[in-house]
């Protein structure tokens, strides 16, 4: 049994071959990958691709599925949503303040394109139970071809390196609370809650932020090194997400913080309960409730014993369930199961 994968996630019986090996043009990338894939019993590609790569792995999935209709094609991380953010940028669509809303342009084109991936041997992996329920009817994919594979702490190595390299704070204390990222973030409840938070709040985002902020809040874009430094120095990591999003998001951020043993506060949103155990590995207040969010953040900021308990449990849970190896078992287990049933 041989599984060919474009992912870096390790696994037994898996041969790794990145799509970029064929050169810069789409045709050369596809040709090189398809030549390598000819001997594979099953292939695993990324469903999370962009216009920048010309959706090469989705194209490869469709071509391979047509060429070898009896061989399984597994698409990992199918974090799809209607519309194209690339088109929004082209049309200079105004972004709302404090929240990452769905793309406005290209919704029909997106659904038509995804329709090309409907094939009996193409299987889509999503990152949460809620997506497992929503995905089939929304995208027109058969339920039997949709699989839930919770994500992994893919940025934990970078966070550990940043923590080890970070100098001891000089002068100003590091922020008590850190919240960062752009994708599917909704900072409005956190900004509303901030005045009641007992400590400084640092928000690192490229999303538009209000011109007037609470006195204990600093918000705006930062470079990657500064982002990592802030992330590893804060006592509490808050990951405020869009509660009614079509897909889940933020897993890399809160799983990375959990892997460091930090306390995470993640309001309810798609995917959160697949990765965070409320009051065991993190705090999960109700969505869109600034008062409940402030209460949860203050509980974490002011109670060192609570932070220690949650942090230790979170770190152990990430090591057991959300490591690269654990994710590989979930992902490649789908391919193996399909081959065994063939």
UniProtKB/TrEMBL annotation:
<keyword id="KW-0808">Transferase</keyword>
<protein>
    <submittedName>
        <fullName>Glycosyl transferases group 1</fullName>
    </submittedName>
</protein>
<dbReference type="Pfam" id="PF13692">
    <property type="entry name" value="Glyco_trans_1_4"/>
</dbReference>
<dbReference type="GO" id="GO:0016740">
    <property type="term" value="F:transferase activity"/>
</dbReference>
């Amino acid at each position: 049994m041989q599984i060919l994968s474009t992912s870096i996630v390790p696994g037994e019986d898996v041969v790794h071959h990145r799509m970029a090996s064929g050169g810069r043009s789409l045709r050369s990338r596809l040709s090189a990958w398809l030549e390598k894939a000819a001997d594979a019993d099953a292939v695993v590609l990324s469903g999370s691709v962009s216009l920048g790569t010309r959706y090469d792995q989705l194209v490869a999935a469709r071509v391979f599925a047509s060429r070898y209709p009896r061989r399984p094609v597994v698409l990992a991380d199918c974090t799809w949503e209607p519309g194209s953010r690339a088109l929004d940028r082209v049309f200079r669509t105004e972004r709302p303040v404090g929240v990452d809303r769905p793309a406005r342009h290209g919704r029909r084109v997106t659904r038509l394109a995804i329709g090309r991936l409907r094939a009996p041997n193409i299987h889509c992996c999503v990152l949460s139970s809620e997506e497992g329920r929503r995905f089939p009817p929304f995208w027109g994919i058969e339920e039997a071809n949709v699989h839930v594979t919770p994500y992994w702490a893919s940025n934990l190595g970078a966070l550990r390196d940043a923590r080890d390299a970070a100098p001891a704070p000089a002068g100003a204390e590091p922020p008590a609370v850190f919240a960062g990222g752009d994708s599917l973030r909704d900072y409005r409840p956190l900004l509303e809650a901030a005045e009641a938070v007992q400590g400084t709040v640092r928000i690192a985002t490229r999303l538009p932020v209000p011109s007037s902020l609470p006195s204990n809040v600093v918000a705006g874009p930062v470079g990657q090194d500064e982002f990592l430094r802030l992330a590893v120095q804060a006592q509490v990591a808050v990951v405020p997400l869009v509660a009614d999003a079509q897909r889940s998001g933020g897993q890399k951020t809160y799983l990375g913080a959990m892997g460091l043993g930090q306390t995470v506060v993640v309001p309810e949103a798609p995917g959160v309960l697949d990765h965070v155990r409320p009051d065991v590995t993190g705090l999960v207040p109700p969505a869109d409730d600034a008062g409940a969010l402030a209460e949860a953040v203050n509980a974490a900021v002011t109670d060192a014993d609570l932070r220690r308990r949650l942090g230790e449990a979170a770190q152990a849970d990430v090591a057991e369930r959300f490591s690269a190896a654990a994710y590989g078992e979930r992902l490649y287990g789908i391919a193996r199961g399909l081959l065994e049933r063939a």
